[in-house]
Amino acid sequence: MKHTPIKAALQCRDFGSTLTVAGWVRTRRDSKAGLSFVELNDGSSTRNLQIVAPKELPNYQSQVQKLYPGCAITVTGSLVESPAAGQAVELHAREVTLLGECDPMKYPLSKGRISFERLREVAHLRPRTNTFGCVARVRNCLAMATHRFFQERGFYYFNAPIFTASDCEGAGEMFQVTTLDLNNPPKNPETGKVDFQQDFFGKAVNLTVSGQLEAETHACALGSVYTFGPTFRAEKSNTTRHLSEFWMIEPEIAFADLQDDADVAEDYLRALFTAVVQECPEELDFFDQRIEKGLKERLVRLSTAKFARITYDEAIQLLEKNADAFEFKPYWGADLQSEHERHLAEKVFNGPVTVMNYPKEIKAFYMRQNDDGKTVAAMDVLLPEVGEIIGGSQREERLDLLEARIRELGMEPENYWWYLDLRRFGSVPHSGFGLGFERMVRFCTGMANIRDVIPFPRAPREIEF
Ligand code: ATP
Ligand code: MN
Questions:
Q1: Which of 235, 248, 451 to mutate to test the pocket of ligand 1 (most atoms within 8 A of CB)?
Q2: What is the pLDDT of residues 148-176, one digit of tens each?
Q3: CA 122 to chain centre
Q4: Is residue 335 in contact with ligand 1, taking CB distance under 6 Å?
Q5: Strand order in the sheet with 156-157
Q6: Using H for helix, E for strand and C for coil, what is the string for 294-326?
Q7: In whole angstroms, how large is the CA radius of gyration of the chain?
Q8: Nearest alpha carbon to residue 452 among 43, 230, 123
Q9: How many angstroms separate the alpha carbon of residue 42 from the centre of ligand 2?
Q10: Residue 57: pLDDT over 90
Q11: Are strands 72-81 and 89-100 parallel, antiparallel or unpaired?
Q12: Which of 437, 61, 423 is nearest to 248 (CA)?
C-alpha cells in the first residue's frame, strides 16, 4: 500500500489531487450538516490532517461515527484548500478504512493531558503523544547527525563489545553477568568465594560501562574511530540525569593531542545543534512553547558558538572569586561540581567552555600525565544549563608511565595486558572523548527527566517494558 506521510500531505498544495493517508485518530467531531471531522496523526508531525468524512460513505454510521482517539484508519480522498483557520489543507474522504479499533473506555491516552510520570507507566503507547513523538524525532536527528559528522571526517564506526571482563572506571558501578545458579553458586574450596571459572565465560563478566579501551585498539590501527552504542551503569543514584542503560558516543583519534581532541568535540557539538535547528524546526517550536521557553534561541546561538578554553587552574581561580555563591567551596584538587560548571558557562563566559588539565587524582588512570606532575591532559566541555556534556582526554601513550600509574592506583597491570600492548607495539599519541547521548537529547528538547528521552528507560526498580 502506498500512502503519503501526513507531514508531506500538509505541505502539499496540489489541490484536487487524490491522496491516501494512514494514521491514528486524535479526535472526531460530528457536524449537524451530516459530516464528521477527524483529526488524524501518523507520527510524522505534531500537526494533524483534518479529514472531512461525509455521511454518504457506506461505513459512515457503522464505523466513521465510532472513530475514537487511538483508532487506526486509512483514508483516500481529495486534497482541498481548507476554509478553516489554522490549517491550509484538508482531505475530503472518499473511502475510510478501519484498520484497528480502540476502546475509548480502556485506551490510556483517551483523556486530554497526562503527566509524564503517568506516561512512563504506558511507555509502549507514549510515542503516540506529541511530546514523545517530538522526542523520538529529535533523537533520530541527533543519531543521524552523529554518524554524518564522523563519517564526513573519515572516522570509522566501531562496535565495542557489550560483555566485558575488564573494568574501565569503577567496579562498583558495573552490572555482573552470570549463568551460575545464584541460589547455589560453585565455590572455590580454598578461598570460599564464588568460582567464576565455572561460569559461562570462565571469568567474572560485566556489562560494559564504556567502549573506550576497546575503541583505542582500532584508533591505533585505523586512525579515527567512534563508538555509538549502549553502556550500562549500576549507579543507585536516582536522578533526572542518570540511567542504568544509556547510549554513548566515544570517538578515539590517533595522532591527536588534547587540543585536537577539543577541536573535534567542539565541532561535533556545533554540528549536532545545527542539525536539530535545521532539521527539527517544528519539534523545537513545540519544545520551546510547551517545555522550556528560550530553548530554540539557545540552540541557535550554540550552533555557531565559540568555545572558551581555559585550564583547570584558571577555572578554580575564577570560581574562588565567587566562593560565597556556592554550596561546595571550590579549591584546587576538587572536582568541579555542577554549580561550578554552570557558573563558568553561564556567568563568566556566557557560552560553552572547555576546561583542560585537571588534577590527576580526580581523573582516570589512562589519561596522559602532564609534565607538572600534578595534572593530566583531560578536558571537559561545559554547557550553560547543564554543565558537563563531554569528558575526554589525551591517553597516556608511554608504557612506563601508564604501568606506574596503574600500580599506583592499586590495580594489576596484568589485567590490562592487551591495553598495554598498544603502548608496546607502535605506540602513538591519541585522544578521545565521550558524550552521553541521552544527556544531549535532554538538552536539545528541554525535557526535565532523562527517563523521558529514551524509549524504554532503565533505572533502579524500573524495567517494566
Ligand atoms: P556523572 O558525574 O554525571 O555521573 P560521569 O563522570 O560518571 O558522569 P563519565 O564516566 O565521564 O560520566 O561518562 C561519559 C558521559 O556519559 C558523561 O559525560 C555523561 O554525559 C554520560 N553519562 C554518565 N553516566 C550516565 C548515566 N548514568 N546516564 C546517562 N548518561 C550518563
Ligand atoms: Mn557517574
A1: 248
A2: 999 999 999 999 999 998 754 555 689 99
A3: 20
A4: no
A5: 156-157, 224-232, 245-254, 430-436, 387-394, 375-383, 353-359, 308-311
A6: CHHHHHHHHCCCCCEEEEHHHHHHHHHCCHHHC
A7: 27
A8: 123
A9: 38
A10: yes
A11: antiparallel
A12: 437
Which listed ligand is nearest to 460 at the C-alpha? 1
Q: Is the CB of residue 230 below 6 angstroms from any atom belonging to ligand 1?
A: no
Ligand 1: centre distance to CA 234 (Å)? 12
Residue 223: left (phi > 0), alpha (psi -120 to 50), or beta? Answer: left
Distance 311 CA to ligand 2 centre (A): 22
Is the pTM value of this prediction over 0.90?
Answer: yes
Cell numbers at 77, concatenated? 480522498
Shortest-distance Cα residue to atom 27 of ligand 1: 242
pLDDT band, residue 400 (cuts 50/70/90) = very high
Buried b (16+ CB within 10 A) or exposed e, 75-99: bbbebeeeeeeeeebbbebeebebe
- 248 pocket-lining for ligand 1 (C-beta < 6 Å): yes
Measured by CA distance, the residue closest to atom 2 of ligand 1 is: 388
Kindly report, residue by residue over 443-460, the tens digit of the pLDDT.
999 999 999 999 999 999
Mutual angle of helices 417-424 and 212-222, in 10-degree steps: 30
Alpha carbon distance 217, 430 (integer Å): 11
Q: In Å, what is the CA distance from 228 to each residue of 160, 211, 251, 265?
A: 8, 9, 9, 15
CB neighbour class for 238 (10 Å; exposed up to 12, middle 13-18, buried from 19): exposed
From the CB of 451, is ligand 1 less than 6 Å away? no
From CA 72, how far away is CA 387, in angstroms rounded?
43
Which residues are 39's β-sheet partners? 27, 50
Using CA positions, which residue lies closest to atom 4 of ligand 1? 242
Distance CA 123, CA 455 (A): 7
Q: What is the spatial distance between Cα 334 and Cα 328, in angstroms, rounded to a whole number? A: 10
Crossing angle of the two packed helices 130-152 and 258-279, in degrees rounded to 10: 140
Terminal C-alpha separation, the chain: 31
Q: For a pocket test of ligand 1, which of 245, 335, 388 has the largest count of ligand atoms closer than 8 A to its C-beta?
A: 388
Q: What is the rounded CA–CA span in Å between residue 200 and residue 196? A: 8
Give tens-digit pLDDT for 99-130. Answer: 999 999 999 998 778 999 999 999 999 999 99
